[in-house]
Amino acid sequence: MNSNILEHKVAVVTGASSGIGRATAIALAKAGATVIVNHFPSEDSRSEAEAVVREIGDAEGRALAIAADISSEDQVEAMFAGTLNRFSKLDILVNNAGIERPAPIQDMTLADWRAVIDVNLTGQFLCSRAAVRAFLNHTRSEHTSGAIGTIIFVSSVHAIIPWAFQTNYAASKGGVSLSLCDRSPKSWHR
Predict the structure, then answer these.
(1) Which CATH number does the domain housing residue 161 bear?
(2) Active-site residue flag, 74
(3) Count: domains in the chain
(4) Which of 85, 87, 88, 170 is most exposed by smallest CB count within 10 Å?
(5) How many CB atoms lie within 10 A of CB 67?
(6) What is the pLDDT along the chain (190 residues), one digit of tens a residue?
């Protein structure tokens, strides 16, 4: 499927160096989007992200890897500023990045609780806020439909189905499902 339905669109995919994020980045590029492959700022994640960028490029797509810890407000702001400086716009955000720090609740540290909440829930808020700000500065062109941006939130079935040793993960994904996502589809219009 090499349609160009997303030609002239710019997408940021968080946690795109592996798993669901990687597959999403590749699919968006195949559909014609220029994809920002966000990854955690570590050597392993950078190598994985660069492999995703190469795979997209080998298929004649366009992608760029950008490191940012999405639990850091400054790093999120820098990632979106870098995207806008390079491509002048943002059309799609896929909030995918997530981590796990499993432990029985009686043994779970506050640091492990906070790390998961900060990435899986606060990170989606920080990225969404930055994306909406970018959408609101969008200039209309022949390539823009009535909606000026799209945000996709990735949650988990474990937001509602218990999973042993994952209290922090379930709470973070439940927050995404219930707080950040309205049950009705929304578009941002000027």
Answers:
(1) 3.40.50.720
(2) no
(3) 1
(4) 85
(5) 17
(6) 457 999 999 999 999 999 999 999 999 999 999 999 999 999 999 999 999 999 999 999 999 999 999 999 999 999 999 999 999 999 999 999 999 999 999 999 999 999 999 999 999 999 999 999 999 987 666 445 667 899 999 988 777 787 899 999 888 888 888 765 554 445 444 4
Q: Which of 169, 173, 176, 181 is catalytic?
A: 169
Domain membership of residue 176 as a residue range: 10-180
**148 in Cβ contact with 135 (< 8 Å):** yes
Structural contact between residues 144 and 138, judged by C-beta atoms closer than 8 angstroms:
yes
Asked whether the CA dihedral 34, 35, 41, 45 is positive or negative, the reply is negative
Task: Determine, yes or no, domain membership for 41.
Answer: yes
> How far apart are alpha carbons 110 and 181 in whole angstroms?
26
